[in-house]
Design goal:
Radius of gyration: 24 Å
Structural class: alpha+beta
Order of helices and strands: HEEEHHHEEEHHHHH
Helix content: 55-70%
Organism: Planosporangium mesophilum
Shape: elongated
Protein name: YbaB/EbfC family DNA-binding protein
Distance between the termini: 20 Å
Number of strands: 6
Strand content: 5-15%
InterPro entries: YbaB-like_sf
Largest sheet: 3 strands, antiparallel
Length: about 250
């Protein structure tokens, strides 16, 4: 491999590793984002994936929002938490000085460069090996492009589909889209009039969890997994298999 091509590849590896570290740091900063409604009646905490994990309802909440507006207060708190999460993620990601500890799967720049040098200077890669490797890489790129088109065509319908979840006792119902937008929170009014605020929060969180599970069963991850893009993803997540496919190892 010529020096300028190897230098360019090393720069790409460095930039990718930096991007990976910054994204990891941003995700860490955004974890546990919280938000509340305008009255302070409902407080929401999001998990690392941005899903509602805990719901806290203030004592004597009915004096602030009333039973009819509690669902709207929950929605408002969820939106506030999502904004806080996005803000924390963005602030950390754009900060070039953000520090993050590389985790498993991080790219090994020196190891990759050494491996490439060994392969190209030892004569192990024949002209035929190089030709096959390039064809395989081209096939991966083409599959990825087709997969992106395939997913892109179907994703809007998946993201806009509405999914519903119920609490264990079915006193609380949450409806949200595949994209995570909360559409409605409904409460059993008779139960709500007698329920303790701690139980209201717990049952609301339970309904959110059920709605997220329903969305996941028909969500973007499943769409990608069943597409060409998913095939490429699985191929690139198997370093040894990919190396053998590209004739970089026996």
């Amino acid at each position: 491999m010529s020096d300028h091509r190897q230098d360019a590849l090393e720069r790409l590896v460095d930039e990718t590793a930096l991007l990976e570290r910054r994204a990891r740091a941003a995700a860490g900063a955004a974890a546990g984002a919280r938000g509340e409604d305008a009255t302070g009646t409902v407080n929401i905490t999001l998990d690392d994936a941005g899903r509602v994990s805990t719901v806290q309802v203030a004592a004597r909440w009915s004096e602030r929002v009333g039973a009819e507006a509690l669902g709207d207060a929950v929605r408002e708190a969820v939106q506030a938490a999502a904004v806080a999460r996005l803000s924390a993620w963005g602030e950390t990601f754009v900060d070039d000085a953000a520090e993050a500890v590389p985790g498993p799967g991080s790219l090994d720049r020196d190891g990759l460069a050494e491996r490439l040098h060994q392969l190209t200077s030892s004569g192990r890669m024949t002209a035929e090996d190089t030709r096959v490797a390039l064809l395989e890489l081209l096939a991966l790129v083409e599959d990825m492009e087709r997969g992106i088109d395939e997913v892109g065509e179907r994703l809007p319908a998946v993201e806009s589909a509405v999914h519903t979840g119920h609490s264990a006792d079915r006193r609380v119902t949450v409806s949200l889209t595949g994209g995570g937008d909360v559409r409605e929170i409904r409460y059993d009014r008779r139960w709500l009039a007698q329920a303790h605020e701690i139980n209201i929060g717990r049952q609301t969180a339970s309904a959110f969890a059920a709605a997220y599970e329903a969305a996941a069963r028909a969500g973007a991850a499943q769409l990608i997994a069943g597409s060409r893009l998913g095939q490429v993803q699985r191929a690139t997540q198997d370093p040894l298999g990919l190396a053998r496919r590209l004739r970089l190892t026996d």
